[in-house]
Amino acid sequence: MDRLEVLQACVESNDADALILTFMPDIRWLTGFSGSNALVVYTKGRSYFVTDGRYATQSRDEVEAGEIHVAPGSLMRHTADQKMLEGSNRVIVQAEYLTLSRLEEYKNVLPDVSFVPVSGILNASVAVKSKRERELIADSQRITDEVFDHLLGFVKPGMSEQDIAAEIVYQHLRRGASAMSFDPIVASGPNSALPHARPTQRVLQQGDMVVIDMGCFKNGYASDMTRTLAIGEPGEEARTVYQVVLDAQSKALEAASPNLTSKELDSAARSIIEDAGYGSFFSHSLGHGVGLQIHEWPSVSWKAEYPLQAGMIITIEPGIYIPDQFGVRIEDMIQLTETGCDNLTGSTKQLVVI
Amino acid sequence: MDRLEVLQACVESNDADALILTFMPDIRWLTGFSGSNALVVYTKGRSYFVTDGRYATQSRDEVEAGEIHVAPGSLMRHTADQKMLEGSNRVIVQAEYLTLSRLEEYKNVLPDVSFVPVSGILNASVAVKSKRERELIADSQRITDEVFDHLLGFVKPGMSEQDIAAEIVYQHLRRGASAMSFDPIVASGPNSALPHARPTQRVLQQGDMVVIDMGCFKNGYASDMTRTLAIGEPGEEARTVYQVVLDAQSKALEAASPNLTSKELDSAARSIIEDAGYGSFFSHSLGHGVGLQIHEWPSVSWKAEYPLQAGMIITIEPGIYIPDQFGVRIEDMIQLTETGCDNLTGSTKQLVVI
Which of A105, A232, A276, B297 is disulfide-compatible with B123, CB 3.0–4.6 A? Predict the structure, then answer.
């Protein structure tokens, strides 16, 4: 479907006359605009792109869809002054992103319009990536794979988690990443048992497991990968747990296809971990969509069920976390195909002992 | 005023029964909690802190105000189950942060409550920093000053803007910053004429002016500083413009005190630039508050007028941008005192020629 047709379908299915997009990643997806302030008005088959004076040049270079307007002040006031929504009674807005004060402003500017909050307008469309988007995500992941390769020669006992996190950021930026897609996680020893640990000054020691979760943005698109290293020979249980997580991940990679729902895919990995007796230690979802945001719809989880579609790019990241002892997580990004999936991640998953 | 008294005053002045905080920097300011998911319910002199299972331990370590609750699922559902808002008819919510879909969830969970959106609830209180907060901001700025000192020996012609940006991030993280407070700006030659330029692969050349705007987070609090360097001997106009910006900044630093409004302070610097004939090239506000967020209330601008108060920490950052040629910006962070201000920034403002 053409991207504007997605907006038209939303307008029709909600019996509305128009739609206003305000969430910047959605606006970037629709128009190509990479700035920080804009809105898109769609009505009667036409779309208007409205930004402020800072982006006059950039919007002309970037925006591929719609008539470009540079507002002298408030974007919504300009929309009203230009009568873009004349004759529209019911106008859809993005319920999960629009704030109460912004809606109040809209109502003041357009007192005769009835605003209709709708959630998830573009979720299913944004989730399916084009060939070009896949290339851009693979480009970002290539940097992350290179940085992991660098880390295998860099990480040594005696370094702190923060030392390694600083190196991860530096090496991504040196390789052309515009920013990190999230602050990297470097969690060693007992800290690795916390799925969302922040890097501390704890120093890596013999016998530690070290969970490293990292990714970057390049050309707007995110990468995301987790690997777990061992510092010196790991204990027997750590080796066992590593193998269970790897088996669970392999099972999910084999199973992943549009024939499953997101919940069934989560279950494919989770059942391996449960059968090994570690079910209660896999406390988070199996994965999530990745694209212009590091976390996108759909969540791949036992909590909700969504149909999987060819073209979606998602993470597969099972983990086991033994409180106060250690944790293991292994995460790849994949793209679903008609019959299975392609793995976009190139780094080794054999347990590396440093 | 005690921090809970600020909430009580807001409840009373809006003729309400209770208040719900959902914006994380405000919750951190009130309770000390540094996690990513929580809400605070305040009613009848009592406050309840509600978070999810991931933060059970952390909330016990950090939260200083209120009864701590760990919700098994939705935070708002837990609030209802625990009858925290029983007997409350009018409940204030944060208008500029709460989304339409979140309000919908609240209404479903508490159908008998009338939710009252109010903006800027904590603005004036958060803006005035305690002694402890000033120390934490000065700590973050100390790192940024050290990194600037490092850059004076590091920056050379032939390096790209991106090379320097990567070094800036690396040096901040190595010195204990938890993250950057924003992606650093390194804008050279004609790029320096764009106030919000992103680092590119452009290589520094003789005759360039280079605007460097950077800051970090440590212990939750932000730093923010801009300096402009010259690569080789700058042209005559660049030297003139540098001096005008420096004079404008000096004037604002002399004038800054609680005797002025934010608009008058902006004007103190702006009039120097206007008198020198560059008024139309100073396109942004003079400054903004800094604290748990890199940009806080108040904006120091010609667009709105706020009373300045002793204790506020704000930036003073005049700039002149000559399109397609070069730009100059000089930015310090200051804390207003009863009679003037203290400068929290230690880096030299003499024009450094590299």
Answer: B297
